[in-house]
Design brief:
This protein has a single domain, classed as Nucleotidyltransferase, domain 5 (2-Layer Sandwich), CATH 3.30.420. 37% of the residues lie in helices and 16% in strands. It contains 6 helices and 5 strands, in the order ββαβααββααα. β1 and β2 form a beta hairpin. The longest helix is centred in the last third of the chain and has 24 residues.
């Protein structure tokens, strides 16, 4: 964290899923912000993530959440789609940052804003941890919504990740519009009809 520089933490959620969009968030926190349990969203319980989301949204200087759809993922690949979602989240910030702290080791520069990539940045910088929580909870909300449309895939619990139940449902029912066609949906190497 650099004094007198407005920094936004950026992170994504859902890169390894077989279904659903990839979500990303960008968060600018006050310089004096602190919280005893704010950490990488993967290390927190679902209940804690949602409690922290309320704190982040109330106290952040600015935040943005965005996504890239399954057809965009299939068209440009998951890495570029993750970065596209991050760019959309940055564009949604009401306060323009001077610098971006990006979780991971790959990023396409955002026009006019410098950046630093940090592996496991969500465990180092509070703003990146905050972004990971927003991206994860907003994506979970979305997966709960589409679960009601296609309950057989268990997206309310697996959130689109390649669990045994999810893959068995793909085998039994075939894929639907929310599945990523460019991903290996089943270990078997045969073509699946897309609904």
């Amino acid at each position: 964290m650099h004094k007198n520089r407005v920094e936004a933490g950026c992170d994504e959620a859902g890169r390894g899923c077989l279904a659903g969009p990839v979500f990303a968030a960008a968060v600018i926190l006050p310089e004096d912000f602190s919280h005893p349990v704010l950490n990488d969203s993967k290390k927190l319980s679902e209940k804690t993530r949602y409690l922290l989301r309320a704190v982040i949204e109330a106290e952040a200087v600015s935040f943005g959440v965005a996504s890239a759809a399954p057809d965009e993922i299939d068209s440009i690949n998951i890495l570029k789609a993750s970065i596209l979602a991050m760019h959309r989240a940055i564009a949604a910030l009401k306060t323009p940052p001077d610098h971006l702290l990006v979780d991971g080791n790959r990023f396409i520069p955002y026009p006019g804003i410098s950046h630093t990539t940090i592996v496991k940045g969500d465990a180092i910088y509070l703003s990146v941890a905050a972004a990971s929580i927003l991206a994860k909870t907003y994506r979970d909300d979305y997966m709960h919504t589409i679960h009601r449309e296609f309950p057989q895939y268990g997206w309310d619990t697996n959130k689109g990740y390649p669990t045994v139940k999810h893959r068995e449902a793909i085998r039994d029912s075939g894929p639907v519009i929310y599945h990523r066609k460019s991903f290996t949906l089943l270990p078997e190497q045969y073509r699946l009809p897309f609904g």
